[in-house]
Every structure is written in structure tokens, then in C-alpha cells.
Amino acid sequence: MDGLSTSIIGRAQDKGLLSVEAINIRDFAENKHNRVDDYTYGGGAGMLMQAGPVYGAYQSVVEKAQSKPRVIYLSPQGQTFSQSMAEEFAKEQELIFLCGHYEGIDERVLEEIVTDYVSIGDYVLTGGELPAMVMIDAISRLIPGVLHNDVSAEFESFQDNLLEYPQYTRPEEWHGKKVPEILLSGHHANVEKWRREQSIIRTAQRRPDLLEKAELSEKEKELAKKHLQNTK
Ligand code: ADE
Is the CB of 129 inside a 6 Å radius of any atom of ligand 1? Predict the structure, then answer.
């Protein structure tokens, strides 16, 4: 699928760690003109994707599948996609992403085949393809072997519902700004302590909504509170 054939996800596909196949619903049109949409009953502007072609496309995928895969319908009406959902979907052998177009899909086929309604955020896009690619990217990088460094998928933003601490590489000084002294100390325990504190401060300042779900000691809660107040 275009957009998923380069870089990390592309290499993962080359290595056989995952595969992505695009199915064109138009190939399952039930008329000579390859039309898959029609006017909506009850009137109103716009067209609706018909149940038949969507179901035909679905069946063609399910026939080849090992088991009955979950069917994710990308829609602003879905549950908001999150890292924990990505982790859950990454455990599945196969997934079907059903991408509608701005006009939507006949409700009856959705009732019959969709297992998960997922949105990637509270804004409206013209179709489900980009949201599907966003989800495929987030899910794929959790598959063992896709990232070179297994730990980097663990210790990153949203680990423990905290944002990642700031990071630095060479040179030691750039535009007059020095790398925090503690990171040059070689004292592993102190570095870890500093990073944890920075994660808490950063989350308090940038994503205070995440703190409720983070597991913090009493001392850490105090630290977070101090930086919450500073932002208001
Ligand atoms: N289709 C259109 N907008 C969308 C969104 N925000 N998330 C998922 N699918 C969509």
C-alpha cells in the first residue's frame, strides 16, 4: 500500500514481519459502471456506499484469512485511537481496516461486519485511508523485530502515561546551551532519577490530563502539582 512501503514499515514488510494489502471496493461493484455508491433514502446531499460491494470486498478478504479477523471501521464516530488500543490490536494475527469515504456507508453492512469503530481524533477527514495508515504505523512498530531496538518501543512517550524526558546528543554545547550536567556524570542511578523527574514535569506542563492515569509516589505527585500550578 502506498505510503507504507518505505522506511521502517516498508523494511518490516520486506522482512516478512507483516504485510499490508489494499482491496479496492470498486472491484466488487454490482453494475457495469463500477459504481459503489447511491443516493440516500430519506433524501439529503451526498451519496452513500452500498452494502453489497462492501460486503463482497469483506468476504474476499475473510475467505483468505486464517481466522475471522476484527474489522475496524475508521470513523469520527469511533472510540479515539490510543497507545493501549495499538497494543491490543498488535496481538491480532490479522486485521481488516474498512475505509469509508466522506459520504459514509450503508448502516446495515456496518452492523453485520464491523467489530471496532475507531477515530484518530476529533476532526473530520475526507476518508478512512489516512486514519488506517496512522493505525497501521502505530500497530506495526509494536510487532517484535519491526524496531531494531526492542527497548525503544517501551521507554517512550505514554509509557506509564508519562511523556518522554528531554534528550541530547553531541555537541555538548550548542547555541550557548549546555547539555544538563547530570547526563555527563556517568552516574546511572542519578540519570534515571533525573529522567523520571523530567518526565513528570513535562507531563504536568504539556499534558496534565495524562497525570490522572500515571502511577506516582506521594513525592512525585507533589512535584507534578508544583509544575501544574506554574502553567495556570
Ligand atoms: N474518517 C474521517 N475522519 C476520520 C477520523 N477523524 N478518524 C477516523 N476516520 C475518519
Answer: no
- What is the reported pTM? 0.91
Q: How far is the CA of 171 from the centre of ligand 1 (A)?
A: 42
Each residue's pLDDT tens digit, 162-187: 999 999 999 999 999 999 999 999 99
**Rounded CA gap, 71 and 94, in Å?**
9
- Looking at the structure, tell me whether residues 45 and 117 fall in a common domain: yes
Structurally, the chain folds into a number of domains equal to: 2
Q: Which long-range contacts (CB under 8 A, 24 or more apart) does 152-160 make?
A: 158/83, 158/210, 160/214, 160/215
Q: Are residues 32 and 107 in the same domain?
A: yes
Residue 84 included in any domain? yes
Which of 119, 122, 133 should be mutated for ligand 1, with most atoms under 8 A from CB?
119
Ligand 1 neighbourhood includes 105 CB (under 6 angstroms):
no
Return the residue whose CA atom lies nearest to atom 10 of ligand 1: 75
Over residues 190-232, the pLDDT tens digits come to 999 999 999 999 999 999 999 999 999 999 999 999 999 754 5
